[in-house]
TrEMBL record, chain A:
Pfam families: BPD_transp_1. Residues 89-305 form the ABC transmembrane type-1 domain. The lineage of its organism: Bacteria, Pseudomonadati, Pseudomonadota, Alphaproteobacteria, Rhodobacterales. It comes from Wenxinia marina DSM 24838. CDD domains: TM_PBP2. Its main location: membrane. It comes from the Bacteria. This is Carbohydrate ABC transporter membrane protein 1, CUT1 family.
Automatic annotation (TrEMBL), chain B:
It comes from Wenxinia marina DSM 24838. The keyword Signal applies. This is Carbohydrate ABC transporter substrate-binding protein, CUT1 family. The keyword Glycosyltransferase does not apply. PANTHER family: MALTOSE-BINDING PERIPLASMIC PROTEIN, MALTOSE_MALTODEXTRIN-BINDING PERIPLASMIC PROTEIN. GO terms for cellular component: ATP-binding cassette (ABC) transporter complex, substrate-binding subunit-containing. SUPFAM superfamilies: Periplasmic binding protein-like II (SSF53850).
Amino acid sequence: MSPVETSHPASAAPATAAAAPAVVAAPRRIDWFPYLLLIPAALLTLVIVAWPLIETFRLSFTDASLRGESYVGAENYVEIFEDDFAEIMIRTFIWMFLGVTLKIVMGVIGAVLLNAALPGRAIFRILVMPPWIVPIAIGVFMWSWMYNGQFGMISGLAQRFGLIDGPFEFLAYGTSAFLATVVTDVWVGTPLVALYLLAAMQSIPTELYEAAWTDGAGRFYRFRRITLPLIAPSIFTVALLSAIWTFNSFDIIWILTEGGPRGSTTTMIIDTYKTAISRFRFGEGAARAVMILVCLTAFAGAYLALMARSQRDAR
Amino acid sequence: MKLTHLMIASTALAGSATLAAAQETIDIINCGAGDDAAAEVQQADIEEWMAANEGYEVTVEYVPWGQCQERAITLAAAGDPAAISYMGSRVLKQLAGSGLIRPFDLTEEEANSYESSVLSTVQFDGQVWGLPRAFSTKALYWNKGLFEEAGLDMPDGPQSWDDVMTAAQAITENTDAAGIGIPAAEFDNTMHEFLNWLYANGGEVIDADGNVVFDSPNNIETLQFMADLAPYMEEGPLAYDRAELEPLFREGQIAMYTNGGWGRAVTGDVDYGIAPIPGGPSGDGPSTLLITDSLVVFEGSGVEEAAMDLVKFLTDTERQAEFDEGGGWTPIRATARSDELMANDPSWTVFIEAVPTGGPEPSVVDYVAMQDVMNAAIQDVITGDATPEEAAAEAQAELEELAAE
């Protein structure tokens, strides 16, 4: 009897059952030790993840404020949809979609350039890092000055090249303020995406490119038929992570516009903060937080389903 | 030998712990960095109070302006309040309504030591909920050089709304500067700016009977004034709060703007004048918004009585005057020291003499929501998205709901 058979009596049983029905499998012993080791981590997860979540759900059914709280049923959920919450949700998704799409596009382009055998490649790889390394608040304050109409670089350059007649305040108008927050978010988020995809590109075997080159495949063809399909799982992964971070991004918008002007950059997270923290309406804020959770869960669920299907297809 | 040392050390440690336990701690949350002259004055006063009250240890935690208020309120809501906190007086109604702060018992003499308009910023429901700690009034800064360049003959600056409008238009049309700087960002001083002009036009947000009167003719007239000024404002006023207007004034990009007394320190080389905020066509004359920050005592710290005593000690007439001077604030009380201040620096006169004519921030429980509603009305008339009547009507309805809470 081989060691494999000895250690897996149950798996061997079906093959031998007909020939030797009298053989009785030994009672299976449960090894509790691994579970014991998991207890601290499970407790920690319960305390720092599960309990706040449960508490948020509970609060969302109350009118909790500085005055105390009482149960109000689904009133908070009804009220937020009577306000302009649907508009804020749509704006949040547009903000996220624009931000993530641009980050992925810029990230792929950046990764390709960083992966190319160009002179000074190491320096470029270092130069791409600052937006990611610089503390977000400092980077965003820098952008807020660049958007300033009177003293900012963008308005100044645009005037110098004759694109605009006079100073233009990017953060004073709804559309330009919205786009300005997206641009800043893309600036902050692109380096991580580029480096993540660069790592994925570098894991592609060079033999594939050599074989394609031998067959006469051009650069773009090699990129489309080799690089892109092989980094697709990484693109999906980084897109999901980026979507979650972008959806929950608070500091960029808060520092640049605080959700203004006239609510044009108010996303769900900004709205939740204003309600729960600035106005101390904890119950209403909790209902908004639950809505964020629902959106992200749905988004992550769709992504996981997509991934599962593509893995099945691959098999 | 070692054992003896260990026993002595343990005994000393236990002794000091007992001593520490006998001392009660009064925690103060203060806004700012704690590195200015006012903080030094306060620390010296605290030490004087501790010397006279040996059972107490006072600790001061300085929290940046943007977070200090939220921090103090969040701690109180979580049942772990600081004993004393520095607060914008605008939130006192919310805190009092929530039972989080304790009212002060003031003697008649103590109450009379304040100008009634100043006391009104911390007083409602017949009680005083905080003692004013920092105080500001506003005035109109005007650039003399730009006025001259635009051919304006206003030696004392604009004295009426017509003057303001004439000057703003002339400067915009005849110089490279904007006529006036108006803050209209998503920030409290957008509402504050409007209230300056509103009070100067005899307007109110909530009348003496507690009724919301935002759609009154005086208020609509003030909104119309804002709309009429819009073409002469800095480019994109919705991107500016007051602090961001300071560099524009310093660089000669705007010819007028309102600011507090501290604005005199940030004018650079500009030859400027300071005028009272001119009265509007329906007003009784110049006016200003009165803003106070206060020291409040939270319920539940266990040292409320001592905290009350300490706050009264710190805000005593003489100590407060010294604190005002250290911080460069408008003096809270009219005293010999404030007279001396005006004599030594006449530019204080406009800020101090405006006190009796001024009005407080409107008081509702949800102050931030009120601010958002009023800001929206102001922004809408400046951008032309609504007429003054439409903006006032919409704000009126929303403010009525907030006032009813």
